[in-house]
């Protein structure tokens, strides 16, 4: 019974096929012919390969340690010669080929013991990097070998002729020594360069060189020969070396390309990646295969992402990136070859050693690139220049050119850059001062002569002159001449020397700014200022010429805001452009059309003077606008209200009155239902009078306490807690009841008290905010947003008002947020940008209000210091109500990329809030979180009543 049980516990294996060993075979790869057996006990029975007599025998081999279940390999060798053969059986501990990416095989002792079916027992030879056994094959024998494995895997098994193996080892030893020597010298050289030149790229390059040296020493077994390192410890060193190699590659790429100059996100990303790779070094001590696998993936990622980054920066003209392209491309090729090798697609023995040599070559090329920066510039880099040379270099660096007029010889010299710019032959601008008159613009010639003549006559002074020079193709370029006379011993001017600067771009920009100041940026039509100026001019001419009878026509689209909210601002702009072109085609050359506002046009009609013809023309305008505008696969129908102010020669009305009368008539047409034409009549001014009465009440409303500041909660969508309040104004009129901002703020602008209302709202908001923050010390602190409701508030006095209020109330920095509509920033973007920067420096937060409904460009947003974007309610509607989740998602993603918070306006219910929170929106306001409340209710809502009191 016991024999039966033992037989059942023994693993049996069938006979194997023998491999013939030829006397002249220097090396035989046995990796693919060995048979692997998974252990079921500590004993294995093998059927031997048939010998010359054809008999198959069975042998049993027991594991070195009883009770274990090792893996086994079996193979057979045949010596059919009549002489004894000595061979070396070699199983390397580590082989890069086929080691794998995920949980790679980092090496270990492979064969614990080996047993021969007959003949001399194989003897183990000492070797640090492989299991080597001396195998003897008797003449005419077939020997079956059973090897007990220490690891499940066996990357390679070779049968070597002893002398051939010795020659191979000697050759590889020489190669390894050369590679390690080059790597060591390179690392030492770059370290010396780092000591001499302290720039950050040099320690980064030196660290990379030392990392490659350490990796080569570990891979070549150099450290194992110097120090007794166990196989398990060697696996840790190998994994750590690969992680350090990835980290130094990343550091070099960051330092060499100076990525921190391009964007701070590069620095954050690099630091995070380095911390991750540093953690891998520690992980190698606990799980070397995992650390090695992640490090190998990181090296490939750094090579790939780095190459894309290098090409991107090189395409933008960055010289360092251009110089690094060949080296980084070679690194990408090296990583690709290494990937094929560790996946087992490149199996030649020479491949791993060639990869190490290639890595050293890459570092060598990096060293050459770094050295170019180390010693570029020569004496200039060391500051060994004279004062004269320094001035010459400064002149060359400024882009200006030399202008020298030898008065006595009447000969001008200018640098050849001017002639190259003008496409003229060399020397075309040299010669007499009069020769320049042929290329100077006719309008500038007299001024050019007068300035130079005055310098010669007065024998002092400076020349500061702008003029235009004609190029060979007929184009004119603007130049600025700054020069001074040089007086000789006789008191006469002998030279006029200075610099000539190309100011064409500045002039074009100035002309463009002047054009934009009096023209609409969307349609290119005259704006309100130019329209009023032309109307005033025409009225002056009409007073002198009875035949001229100018008529003012005011045109406004009915309900265009709803159309704009439905189709979106970009389509709305296209509609405005289409309508402007249609109206422009109706006019004759003597007529004028201007865009006075968002959907309002003004026309000065001179081509028609008869009232009936003017009415017919106005009807043509109305019908032109009512013609459908095609958009995608749909048509948009519009209607317009038209107001007409006829010229009255007996009236002393100026342009302001005529324009206002036309607008009053247009408003009257809207009140009558729109899509109609109204001619101004004096009775229509009653409405204007009512507005004046309301304006008088508004002047006294603040003193009477009728203007109230109300607060609408702004909620954090993550946890539904109150994050702040949006501040608005409300007028409790004693006779008309409650009036919303849209009812009285336009009147405040007309009567000039909008600044007073803005200051009142700012002070009340800051005082309430200070009370909230005093009672509730939370992080982040409670904030309040106050939208500046008029472009007139964006003035220099706003800086002083904000500074005074912040100093008086001591609110937390950036918690008092000032909101700006897009339209307030596009009228004068340069001034607006400076104001925003100053406000941010004072400690005020900045909110871009109603983003997505105006004409603000993303390139402008990137360079303005906003910290919050308030998305207009048109983007926040629920699906099925005209919402555009794609546009909303784009706005939120843009804000996150620019490190800005997002407040969604118009959150109607909790489902809407959940949807916005899922898209990454941080704050929301709307009816879902409560309506606007008084300051007392806001204090009680926050629990800040006592502190406020």
TrEMBL record:
The keyword Magnesium does not apply. Keywords: Membrane, Transmembrane, Transmembrane helix. Coiled coil: none annotated. Signal peptide: none annotated. Residues 387-459 form the PAS domain. The chain crosses the membrane at residues 174-196, 208-230, 236-257, 269-288, 294-314, 321-344, 350-371. Residues 463-515 form the PAC domain. Residues 548-682 form the GGDEF domain. Pfam families: EAL, GGDEF, PAS_3. Residues 691-946 form the EAL domain. This is Diguanylate cyclase (GGDEF)-like protein/PAS domain S-box-containing protein. It comes from Pseudochelatococcus lubricantis. The lineage of its organism: Bacteria, Pseudomonadati, Pseudomonadota, Alphaproteobacteria, Hyphomicrobiales.
């Amino acid at each position: 019974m016991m024999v039966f049980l033992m037989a059942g516990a023994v693993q049996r294996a069938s006979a194997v096929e023998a491999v013939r060993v030829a006397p002249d075979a220097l090396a035989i790869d046995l990796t693919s012919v060995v048979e692997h057996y998974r252990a079921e006990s500590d004993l294995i029975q093998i059927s031997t390969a048939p010998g010359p007599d054809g008999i198959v025998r069975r042998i049993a081999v027991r594991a070195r340690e009883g009770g274990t279940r090792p893996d086994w390999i079996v193979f057979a060798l045949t010596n059919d010669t009549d002489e004894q053969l000595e061979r070396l059986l070699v199983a390397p501990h580590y082989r890069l080929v086929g080691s794998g990416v995920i949980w790679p095989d980092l090496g270990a002792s492979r064969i614990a013991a080996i047993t021969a079916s007959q003949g001399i027992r194989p003897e183990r030879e000492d070797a640090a990097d492989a299991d080597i056994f001396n195998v003897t094959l008797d003449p005419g024998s077939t020997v079956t070998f059973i090897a007990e494995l220490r690891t499940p895997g066996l990357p390679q098994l070779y049968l070597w002729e002893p002398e051939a193996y010795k020659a191979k080892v000697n050759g590889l030893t020489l190669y390894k020594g050369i590679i390690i020597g080059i790597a060591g010298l390179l690392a030492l050289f770059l370290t010396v360069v780092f000591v001499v030149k302290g720039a950050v790229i040099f320690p980064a390059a030196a660290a990379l060189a030392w990392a490659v040296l350490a990796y080569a020493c570990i891979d070549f077994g150099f450290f194992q020969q110097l120090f007794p390192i166990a196989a398990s410890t060697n696996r840790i060193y190998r994994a750590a070396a690969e992680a350090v190699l990835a980290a130094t590659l990343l550091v070099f790429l960051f330092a060499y390309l100076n990525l921190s100059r391009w964007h701070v996100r590069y620095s954050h990303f690099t630091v995070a990646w380095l911390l991750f790779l540093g953690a891998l070094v520690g992980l190698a001590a606990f799980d070397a295969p995992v650390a090695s696998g992640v490090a190998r993936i990181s090296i490939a990622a750094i090579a790939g992402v780095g190459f894309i980054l290098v090409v991107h920066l090189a395409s933008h003209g960055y010289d360092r990136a251009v110089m690094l392209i060949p080296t980084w491309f070679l690194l990408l090729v090296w990583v690709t070859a290494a990937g094929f090798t560790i996946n087992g697609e490149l199996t030649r023995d020479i491949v791993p050693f060639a990869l190490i040599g290639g890595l050293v070559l890459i570092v060598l090329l990096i060293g050459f690139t770094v050295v170019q920066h180390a010693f570029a510039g020569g004496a200039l880099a060391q500051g060994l220049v004279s004062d004269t040379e320094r001035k010459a270099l400064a002149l060359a660096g400024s882009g200006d050119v030399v202008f020298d007029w030898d008065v006595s010889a009447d000969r001008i010299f200018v640098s050849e850059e001017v002639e190259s710019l003008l496409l003229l032959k060399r020397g075309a601008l040299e010669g007499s001062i009069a020769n320049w008159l042929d290329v100077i613009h006719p309008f500038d010639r007299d001024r050019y002569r007068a300035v130079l003549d005055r310098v010669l006559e007065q024998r002092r002074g400076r020349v500061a002159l702008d003029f235009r020079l004609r190029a060979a193709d007929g184009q004119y370029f603007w130049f600025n001449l700054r020069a001074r006379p040089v007086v000789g011993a006789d008191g006469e001017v002998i030279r006029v020397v200075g610099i000539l600067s190309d100011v064409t771009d500045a002039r074009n920009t100035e002309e463009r700014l002047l054009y934009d100041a009096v023209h609409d940026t969307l349609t290119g039509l005259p704006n309100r200022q130019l329209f009023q100026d032309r109307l005033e001019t025409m009225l002056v001419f009409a007073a002198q010429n009875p035949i001229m009878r100018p008529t003012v026509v005011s045109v406004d689209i009915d309900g265009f805001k709803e159309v704009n909210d439905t189709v979106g601002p970009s389509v709305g702009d296209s509609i405005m452009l289409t309508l402007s072109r249609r109206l422009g085609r109706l006019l004759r050359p003597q007529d004028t059309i201007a865009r006075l506002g968002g959907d309002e046009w003004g026309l000065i009609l001179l081509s028609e003077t008869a009232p009936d013809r003017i009415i017919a023309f106005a009807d043509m305008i109305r019908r032109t606008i009512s013609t459908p505008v095609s958009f995608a696969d749909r048509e948009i129908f519009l209607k317009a209200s038209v107001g007409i102010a006829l010229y009255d020669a007996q009236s002393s009305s100026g342009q302001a009155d005529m324009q206002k009368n036309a607008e009053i008539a247009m408003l009257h047409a809207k009140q009558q239902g729109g899509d109609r034409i109204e001619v101004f009549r004096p009775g229509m001014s009653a409405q204007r009078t009512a507005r004046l009465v309301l304006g008088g009440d508004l002047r006294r409303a603040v003193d009477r306490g009728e203007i109230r500041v109300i607060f609408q909660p702004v909620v954090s969508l993550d946890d539904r807690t109150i994050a702040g309040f949006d501040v608005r104004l409300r007028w409790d009129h004693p006779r008309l009841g409650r009036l919303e901002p849209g009812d009285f703020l336009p009147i405040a602008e007309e009567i000039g008290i909008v600044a007073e209302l803005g200051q009142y709202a700012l002070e009340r908001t800051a005082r309430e905010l200070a009370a909230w923050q005093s009672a509730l010390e939370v992080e982040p602190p409670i904030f309040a947003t106050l939208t500046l409701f008029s472009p007139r508030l964006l003035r220099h006095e706003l800086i002083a008002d904000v500074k005074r209020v912040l100093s008086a109330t001591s609110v937390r920095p950036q918690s008092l947020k000032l909101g700006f509509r897009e339209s307030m920033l596009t009228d004068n973007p340069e001034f607006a940008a400076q104001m925003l920067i100053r406000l941010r420096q004072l400690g005020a937060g900045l909110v871009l209000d109603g983003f997505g409904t105006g004409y603000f460009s993303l390139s402008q947003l990137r360079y303005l210091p906003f910290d919050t974007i308030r998305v207009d309610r048109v983007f926040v509607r629920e699906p099925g109500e005209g919402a555009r989740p794609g546009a909303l998602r784009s706005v939120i993603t843009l804000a996150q990329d620019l490190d800005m918070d997002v407040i969604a306006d118009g959150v109607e219910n909790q489902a809407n809030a959940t949807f916005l929170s899922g898209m990454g929106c941080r704050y929301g306001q709307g009816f879902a979180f409560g309506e606007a409340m008084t300051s007392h209710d806001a204090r009680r809502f926050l629990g800040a009543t006592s502190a406020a009191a």
